[in-house]
């Protein structure tokens, strides 16, 4: 498990396993967001398996599958809703953490400078520069 904090209350991770969930809860996360569609992965790490482990560990689980290259505003809204509803830190995961970073940045467009929304994920190797125009457009609202 490779947790990469973007802020004090939001981190991203590559794919997790049910056996990782107890450590996620122990690390202080209260909400777990799955941004990975089940069609990409084997059954043992699909959303239902992670949800069962999350609920057993007392975490709130949110399913918001993000398809690479086809991120929708529904994905952005669902991610924003999950972050706002969380009673503590959020961990979002996908294949690498990139899609979880993108929906975080898009959800914060207009609340933080675009340069910052690109630079924060870049510290962990996520390249959001192609989303600059979209971030700027969303910020204009």
Automatic annotation (TrEMBL):
Q: Which CDD domains match?
A: PTP-bact
Point out the signal peptide segment: none
Output this protein's name: Uncharacterized protein (TIGR01244 family)
In which domain of life is the source organism classified? Bacteria
Using the record's annotation, list all stretches that form the Beta-lactamase hydrolase-like protein phosphatase-like domain.
2-110
InterPro entries to which the protein is assigned, alphabetical: BLH_phosphatase-like, Prot-tyrosine_phosphatase-like
One GO MF term: hydrolase activity
